[in-house]
Amino acid sequence: MSFFFNKTVLVTGGCGTVGREIVRQLLDHDPREIRVVDTNESEIFFLEQELMDHRRHNPSSNISSLCQIGDIRDADKLNMMCVGVDIVLHTAALKHVILCERAPFDAVQTNIMGVKNVIQAALLNDVERVIFTSSDKAVNPTNVMGTSKLMGERLITAANSLKMGRRTIFSSTRFGNVLGSRGSVIPIFARQIEAGGPVTLTDRRMTRFIMTLEESCRLVLSAAEKARGGEVFVTKMPVIQIADLARVMIDELAPQNGIDPSKMPITEIGAKAGEKLYEELMSDEETRRTVELTEMFAVMPAFRNVYEDIAYDYADIVNTNVTDPYVSSPGNSMSLEDLGDFCLNHDLLAPYMRTTIPVSAARPSRRAA
């Protein structure tokens, strides 16, 4: 029986890329009710219709739903939405680095004060669990967005000392780039290839952690079940070089647009301010308080003595002595061929395919490159 069976789950930011996929996956777990709060009026309407369609097509489903317009900056709204809730999956956030840099006070209001509101609403309503979705940019942050996400993690961990006898467990998940999500590099490269180029790279040396949308959301749900309180779950992900992703996409998509892949220009435009050449999902300091699980790492709170005595007795511990920080580098990145298989096996390029040109027709040029 699913951990979410017959429970009421609130998803904040449920109309975003990650939030919406979490809602879809929750439907397979037979919760009692799915509640969604989001600021996007149109997408709330469409999500509500999608949930109604699910009930029509699955007459045996007893899942009820409640989708409402609301902002996590509004503490009263969150308090109302948390009445009777068992689990909160908090995905609402401002996530765009440059936009947060231009509007830092808004980033604070949403990414920090919004987390505070979620914590207080959960405590007031004796919610069972709260899972906060964080970002690799929270590790040694170089920008406002990453710093606000780090503060969100710290608030979630610290909330475990505020329970006053309540049952609420607060934990975070941290992952990197979700390929194919809104704002990710895949739709940007696809538009550039369709236009005939150039495909723009900030720096050919840049590496990134990647995962699919389905994987990221599945691991958020898994973290909700594993959570003991205060830990940060760091998902295990493969590493790619962004230049390799551009090469794969050019080889696969350029022929769809009648363009010879070898003629597609690639331009290096330089890294943006505050942008790292590599990503960190776990710092060197964090390794000293980390255990490795089957699909993720669990970083224990730095100030264990502040909280109640928590037993981090996960069933799938594979290593209690983690020594290496989790950093992307060219040395541990996927090969060009493996990256091509990853994109195709997970249908990451399918939305941009126009014809049925065999994949093998494009791959020789990639190997040659």
Q: What would the keywords be for this entry?
A:
single chain; 369 residues; alpha/beta; Rossmann fold; ten-stranded mixed beta sheet; three-stranded mixed beta sheet; 17 strands; globular; disordered C terminus
Could you describe the 3D structure shown?
The protein has 369 residues and is an alpha/beta fold. It has a domain at 8-175: NAD(P)-binding Rossmann-like Domain (Rossmann fold), CATH 3.40.50.720. It is 36% helix and 20% strand. It is built from 11 helices and 17 strands. It has helices at residues 17-26, 41-57, 75-81, 97-102, 104-124, 144-158, 185-194, 213-226, 242-253, 336-345, 359-368; strands at 8-12, 33-38, 64-69, 87-90, 129-135, 169-175, 177-179, 199-201, 207-212, 232-235, 239-241, 266-268, 280-282, 290-293, 296-299, 317-319, 326-327. The strands form 4 sheets. Strands 3-2-1-4-5-6-10-15-14-16 form a 10-stranded mixed sheet, sandwiched between helices. A 3-stranded mixed sheet has the order 7-9-11. A two-stranded parallel ribbon has the order 8-12. Helix 3 runs parallel beside helix 5. It is globular. The termini are far apart. The model is unreliable at 356-369 (pLDDT under 50).
Write the layout of secondary structure elements.
Layout: E1 8-12, H1 17-26, E2 33-38, H2 41-57, E3 64-69, H3 75-81, E4 87-90, H4 97-102, H5 104-124, E5 129-135, H6 144-158, E6 169-175, E7 177-179, H7 185-194, E8 199-201, E9 207-212, H8 213-226, E10 232-235, E11 239-241, H9 242-253, E12 266-268, E13 280-282, E14 290-293, E15 296-299, E16 317-319, E17 326-327, H10 336-345, H11 359-368
Helix pairs in contact: 1-8, 3-5, 5-6, 7-9, 9-10, 9-11
